[in-house]
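User: My collaborator sent over this chain with a note saying "see what the structure looks like." That's all I know about it. Can you take a look?
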Amino acid sequence: MKKLLLTTLMATTALFAEAPMLPATPYAKVAPLIGKGKPIFLEVGSKMCHSCQIMDRMLYVVKKEHPDYPLYFIDVQQERQAALTLKVQMIPTQIVFDGNGKAVFRHVGGLSREELDKVLGRYGVK
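Assistant: Without extra context I'll predict from the sequence alone. Here is the result:
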């Protein structure tokens, strides 16, 4: 299991190492969208964090493939208050809010593309 996880992580890292990064969105622009009838996905991290960079690059690729997906990157180095508001203790943290504004998914650490696709599908972030 550990070998499979390591292999998956290495493949994910190699795949997204060259992709551009999804630009950070100010939390003040994202907060009003939470609970407005559509689920949204937040990636909370830092441009200085290696795991966050991998996630951010992966989200860039997903957003490029699906421009209408509500995917947002919140940079905690620029948005410290947002990290407190969102109760983020470690980065990267992924949060999905349902259409009513309830946090229905929270994950700390990186996700593989397969895991990300499952989360987006399961919670209707499309």
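A starting point for your reply to your collaborator: Residues 11-16 have pLDDT under 50 and may be disordered.
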